[in-house]
Amino acid sequence: LFSASVVDDALIEELEEILYTADIGSTAVQWLLDGVHKERKSFESGDDVKTFMKKEILAVLQSVEKPLLPPDGSPGVLLMVGVNGAGKTTTIGKLASLFRKKYDKKVLLAAGDTFRAAAVEQLEEWGRRAECEVIKEQEGTDPAAVAFNAVSKAKAQNADIVIVDTAGRLQNRVNLMEELKKVRRVIDKAHQGAPHEVLLVVDANNGQNAVRQAVEFHQMIGLTGIIVTKLDGTAKGGVVIGIARELGIPVRLIGIGEKIEDLRPFNAFDFTEALFN
Amino acid sequence: QLTEKLESTFRNLRGRGKLSEDNIAEAVREIKLSLLEADVNFRVVKELVARIKERAVGAEVMKSITPGQQFVKIFHDELIKTLGEGDHSLNFSVKPPAVILMAGLQGSGKTTSAAKLALLLKNDMKRRVLLVPADVYRPAAIEQLNTLARSIDVDVYPTNPSDDPVDITANSIEYARKNGLDTVIIDTAGRMQVDEALMNEISKIREVSSPAEVLFVADAMTGQDAVTVAKEFHNRLTITGVILTKMDGDARGGAALSIHNVTGAPVKFIGVGEKIDAFELFHPDRIVSRIIG
Ligand SMILES: Nc1nc2c(ncn2[C@@H]2O[C@H](COP(=O)(O)OP(=O)(O)OP(=O)(O)O)[C@@H](O)[C@H]2O)c(=O)[nH]1
Ligand SMILES: Nc1nc2c(ncn2[C@@H]2O[C@H](COP(=O)(O)OP(=O)(O)OP(=O)(O)O)[C@@H](O)[C@H]2O)c(=O)[nH]1
Ligand SMILES: [Mg+2]
Ligand SMILES: [Mg+2]
């Protein structure tokens, strides 16, 4: 079928391996290969084909590249959500430090995971490292109550920013997703218009389930951004392409390690280059 | 007359000949795609499909199903056999205390699973377990394991963040020996397989503990990189078993096949929730249906 062009079965196989092993997913892989097939007469080498695909991917990712600035809102409120172990609590520590140091913001952290063992202690340690106050309640308190109290306190103290931590939850657990919906609703009750940012934290090691996460969380509470963590490993995080194509949710930040400074703005160009390395 | 009629009936019942490359081509394509969408690694998919196709071609077509459907059934059974092979129990036939080492990437569920395993061993096998918090890096990791241990009334070795994980390991085993505890479960910090310093650390931990089991704890939502990660952990530690966590989610769980393919280690347990009793023995049937889709 492709014998007249450089795009033969061997090249297709090679490209599929690169794309699939980057967790790009079958829908996006098909989209890219359809594009390659359309342009097949214009390629003079396998490298030409790769350059073409990089360009297609870059266009998609550039359309969702949007830096995260500390939201105005007196206070600006950020809600961190995501599945278990994605890196929410750690990212909050990094973000709090960034907002305080780089933007000179007064940041309060809300210990909204009232369920998991030592979740509050973990956030408190990050609060110490970022030099930000942590608002917490008794273990087992309704997370919505914690969020409400933190936002109210922030208004009273004239804090600039509140970052609300939540317990990890799998998107198919209906009662936990309902709980999150309630947390969001209560934050708005405490301060109209809040939360100003709702950020889904996604582990770069995840496969296609990350797209399901984005779809479900977005449907439940509306996302304003994605943060991809653990990009200091060997996983490429290609699911971002599927999420971008399907939902268009902006990718704001990436986590590249476990230290407080290991947070970077999402850069579409660097990310696309890394997919093909 | 009647004999002829009966013969033709039997001939039809015997089906339409044999499975061939052609009459299963569509099913092969669909299975490949399904496995990729289930997060099975690209090369593992290629290898599995080639191997099973070779086994299937030439088989007699069964009555009342199409060749494609029969290939899917053969594939399904092969995967169950693959994931079912190996010893799915824990090896305790060692001089006590038996050490179980938990290893894996950040956030995969090691600490939670360590406690879940402790509870299962205590309840089902009446073992006397010591939980050991050897993660001195993650904020409140020691508190996390302490809290979990308290909740199930299992001993936990006293640790400070200033301690060295290799010393913690050696000292805790000595402690277990002196106090008649027959099982030591070592919780370690999450680490990337490309982090030289931390991989050296866990190699040393393995060296001083001579574990009866090295359990690789992997998130059921892990994608293609499962092979790269598992291969390196296996190279360094010799994985004896896998715990697949967060199976209460809707991830297809293809990582299980990828990990088994590169380590040969059986999945021994699955995590099915955040609660400490959400822990089960692994049975291949459910995950295979999930993966094939
Ligand atoms: N290497 C690396 N590790 C990370 C990164 N972000 C988070 N982690 C680690 O991932 C693990 C889980 O992080 P947490 O912050 O506890 O994740 P979480 O989403 O709050 O987890 P739950 O609250 O239990 O759902 C910890 O060991 C973190 O140090 C990252 O960018 N790179
Ligand atoms: N739903 C669900 N959550 C789980 C399961 N196993 C662990 N978790 C959750 O996953 C998150 C991470 O678990 P941890 O035990 O902290 O993971 P870890 O591997 O010790 O993390 P690090 O020490 O940071 O590498 C926590 O929120 C756990 O409650 C499971 O089977 N199902
Ligand atoms: Mg957390
Ligand atoms: Mg842990």
The total of beta strands of chain A comes to 8
Total DSSP helices of chain B: 11
How are the strands of the largest sheet of chain A arranged?
3-2-4-1-5-6-7-8
Query: Which spans of chain A of ≥5 residues are poorly predicted at pLDDT below 50?
Result: none
Q: Which protein chains make the most extensive interface, counting residues with beta carbons within 8 Å of the other chain's beta carbons?
A: A-B, 44 and 44 residues
Taking Cα atoms only, what radius of gyration of chain B do you get, to the nearest Å?
23 Å
Bound molecule kinds, no repeats: guanosine-5'-triphosphate, magnesium ion
**Low-confidence segments of chain B, ≥5 residues, pLDDT <50?**
none
Question: How confident overall, as mean pLDDT of chain B?
Answer: 95
Beta-strand residue percentage of chain A: 5-15%
Percent helix of chain A: 40-55%
Structural account:
The complex is a heterodimer of chains A (277) and B (293). Chain A is an alpha/beta fold and 277 residues long. Chain A contains ten helices and eight strands. An eight-stranded mixed β-sheet of chain A has the order 3-2-4-1-5-6-7-8, sandwiched between helices. In chain A, helix 8 links the parallel strand 5 and strand 6. In chain A, helix 2 packs across helix 3. The longest helix of chain A is centred in the first third of the chain and has 17 residues, at 46-62. The mean pLDDT of chain A is 97. With 293 residues, chain B is of the alpha/beta class. Helix content of chain B is 49%, strand content 13%. Chain B has eleven helices and eight strands. Chain B has helices spanning 2-13, 25-37, 42-56, 67-84, 110-125, 141-151, 165-178, 196-209, 226-237, 255-263, 284-292, and strands at 98-103, 129-133, 155-156, 183-187, 213-219, 241-245, 267-271, 279-281. In chain B, helix 2 (25-37) packs antiparallel against helix 3 (42-56). Chain B is elongated and about 90 Å long. Chains A and B meet through helix 1, helix 5 and helix 8 of A and helix 2 and helix 6 of B. The complex binds guanosine-5'-triphosphate (GTP) (2 copies) and magnesium ion (MG) (2 copies).
